[in-house]
Design the sequence.
């Protein structure tokens, strides 16, 4: 699949972590296939997660009452978003596939990555009601959530204390990516790497590399309530 | 319920917003009842959402490979968390009730509030496996998620395009608060305030004030998969 463009949005503080290695495996494997791979290393970039007035360059649309969604939409139209957002939006625009690589924090992504979602996926760029879900503005792109957990696979089952892992995926996969029209590949989950042997962690990297070899042949999931809550 | 302590964790950039007014209503109404109310105004505090090495004062437990969860746990034991975290933990420790007031961003809380969860609810302070869920370390406290949405009530129903609003509450109520042992009161949701009349927005404030009058008589929800996915 030479020529395809991949953006990896990566959120881990430690390059030597399993998340760091999973990210490296993706860069290498997709590179070998001839894909062009870009990484947004959020902690290394000290990416700003807070949605504030600083995201809008120059005057506000309504300086009497600050509404972030409205201001970001208007600033996008005028080309007046802050440089870091314009940069991320360019990367998204060019990408065929977005890979989100992170450790699960509190049944969701770390705040630094949530901030990427909050700030980059501006109305007019990623969606524009009623252009959402199947007609979202980022249609024809793919996304894949790749993450590690603290809890075991057994805890994240229907009868387990933390419930089916798919419950957690609804806000991220459906509420964010699908809303923007992005098609979602099956998630890639490494359960409880901190509690397994070094050998098992190496195996996790091999499994990911193996999956990436045939990733472009995969069909997206059917991103509807049935997939999550059946 | 004089003497009860309430902590409002508030995330909106604009004091004049409906979220700002909802927060003010809670401060006033609970104050009238003789409760002691503290507000963590996250944007005004420029609260840091990123979980980094800066949260640990002094030397690391393992300086070879940075693991945020381990380092925060060890720093908590030593009393070596950064001052802003110690301050927030004190407020949580003293509170009988936590109210989270925010606009829904992407089927979840804004990144600045997710960062509060990621950084404040440290292992050893809020939970310590297997002391989680019913035996979480913050048991005997209550939490209430109060938020505004962009989408309408109809969109957030089982047959609506955004699915049942309860699906979204699972990670926040069950995955975070219940995990720490906190009992959860029914959420308070103002749907699509930007698309209703000024009169209707005022009505939303009255409904909230009214609910607060008898809040202490409410029973927590049964925070189990049935409540969310039945």
Sequence:
């Amino acid at each position: 699949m030479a020529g395809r463009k991949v953006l990896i949005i990566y959120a881990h503080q430690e390059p030597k972590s399993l998340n760091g290695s999973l990210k490296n495996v993706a860069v290498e494997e997709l590179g070998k296939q001839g894909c062009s791979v870009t990484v947004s290393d959020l902690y290394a970039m000290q990416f700003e997660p807070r949605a504030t007035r600083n995201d809008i360059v120059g005057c506000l649309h309504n300086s009497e009452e600050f509404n972030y969604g409205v201001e970001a939409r208007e600033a996008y139209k005028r080309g007046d978003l802050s440089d870091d957002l314009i940069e991320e939006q360019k990367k998204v625009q060019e990408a065929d596939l977005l890979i989100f690589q992170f450790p699960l924090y509190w049944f969701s992504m770390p705040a630094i990555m949530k901030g990427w979602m909050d700030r980059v996926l501006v109305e007019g760029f990623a969606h524009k009601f009623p252009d959402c879900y199947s007609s979202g503005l980022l249609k024809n792109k793919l996304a894949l959530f790749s993450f590690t957990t603290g809890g075991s696979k057994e805890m994240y089952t229907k009868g387990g204390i933390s419930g089916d892992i798919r419950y957690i995926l609804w806000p991220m996969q459906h509420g964010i990516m699908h809303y923007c029209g992005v098609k979602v590949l099956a998630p890639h989950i490494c359960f409880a790497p901190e509690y397994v042997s070094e050998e098992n962690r190496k195996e996790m990297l091999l499994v990911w590399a193996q999956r990436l070899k045939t990733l472009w042949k995969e069909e997206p999931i059917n991103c509807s309530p049935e997939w999550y809550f059946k």
